[in-house]
Amino acid sequence: MLGEHHYSIEVEWQGDRGEGTSGYRAYGRQHVVRAAGKSHDIDGSSDRVFHGDRERWNPEELLIAALSQCHMLSYLHVATQHGVIVHGYTDAASGTMVEDGFGGGVFTEVTLHPRVIVADESMVEAAQRIHAEAAEKCFIAASVAFPVHHEPVAVVTPVIA
Question: Which of 47, 57, 79, 104 is least crowded, fewest Cβ atoms below 10 Å from its Cβ?
Answer without folding.
Answer: 104
